[in-house]
Amino acid sequence: MLAKVGSCGLMGLGGFHVDVEVDVSSGMPCMEIVGLADTAVKESRERVRSALKNAGFAYPASRIIINLAPADLRKEGPIYDLPIAVGILAASGQVPFSGRRDTVFLGELSLDGEIRGVHGVLPMLIDARSRGMRRAVVPEENAGEAAYIEGLQILPVRNLSELASYMRGEKEMVYCQPGKFAARRESSGDIDFKYIKGQDAAKRAMEIAVAGSHNIFLIGPPGSGKTMLARAVPTIMPLLTFAEALEVTKVHSVSGELRGGIVTERPFRSPHHTASTASLIGGGAKARPGEVSLAHQGVLFLDELPEFRREALEALRQPLEDGFVTVSRVNARVEYPARFMLVASMNPCPCGYYGDPSGKCRCTPGQIRRYLSQRISGPLLNRVDLHVEVARPLYEDLISAREGEPSSAVRNRVEQAREIQRERYQKAGILVNSQLRGGMFDEFCKLDAACELLLSSAFQSLNLSARAYRRILMVARTIADLAGSGEIREEHVAEAVQYRSLDRKYWGGEV
Length: 511
What we know:
The chain is an alpha/beta fold.
């Protein structure tokens, strides 16, 4: 007897439909799985056999052939355990199954018949819904994320016995209630801006960076507060929208980092400097997403930037420019979103005290140049919009009882600036100033004569590139938005230019 059970496959962040065809016929007892299945899928034979027996079902002493169609796409992971088991039960007549084409089954089986959660449920079910599927049977563990897919009935199941009761009509099916999305503010571990003493200029730069989703580079001696400033960024970030939350959740679901439900906070990723290129950008044998994709719609913080491998840092250039990363392997070529805000910090020299008023630095000019240039290339630096020098706070600031401006006040200004940008770019297909491209600069970043003169002078004196010129315009546009100005003014351009002046001090030959 033949049974066909609907399921799904995953390639990158895209799903595809899989038909699990099970044929139970007379012959020498065996189970064969065909259809370009990987090792984890082929191991389903033993899991399914034990799960059926331990759940109280009869395992057919027959020849069982299982085909995963389409046969030219590779099937990976344990997600086919459940549809294979359902197919065997249906083909052997142990449960009624009409072979309806509007239902998909996903889940891994334990040896006692329990149904375990799997990775990538959200993108697979989004694809299933687009193909006209009306319901999905998923592990109870995955019900939290699946419930947010509109137009798809989600039936969570805990074990094979419960699923059989549903299929026989012995138990009424209880579908998940649609998920209600509520974005969250910062987590309790984040640092409020009001607790950062001094550093008014650096906090202003952080506000500008978040308002326009610009990349920012912090350089200063040890103990100046670079890491604290970076870790305070989540407290001034705007809330995730539902569309953004779905994008982020898809990436985290595929990577296996989702812990039930849906992502409600903007990601903040801080990989260690020993991270490999594959872990940072994505890759591995199965082309999994890396840190740049896990930071999508959030922050990627690289502390002690020169300590990272140069090849890993150079690989950042494409996602910083394009907002996505392409991972190519022998058996896969996938594209992951990577539109994140980069926050990087570093010391200005090997000892860390170059330019510090204490005069502790004893590094030679050659040592400083090598330290800065060996790991951090000009093209990478050029893709960072704001370069900020962070000086050590004064003693008077540290002992002052006066609290600084709280993160909530800064966040309100950031959200107002983001709203201005959303309205401005409704027809342009972008959301924030950092996404401006090509002819958009002529339309949205018009300058008067005074601004043109100032920018021309800065272009010549700082020896700026065309990319640096455009990034100054982006930052000036954001500063104008924070000021509530519809036009870019001279003071906005002047402030934007100062965030490129460190190019010359540290990389332009003055040391």
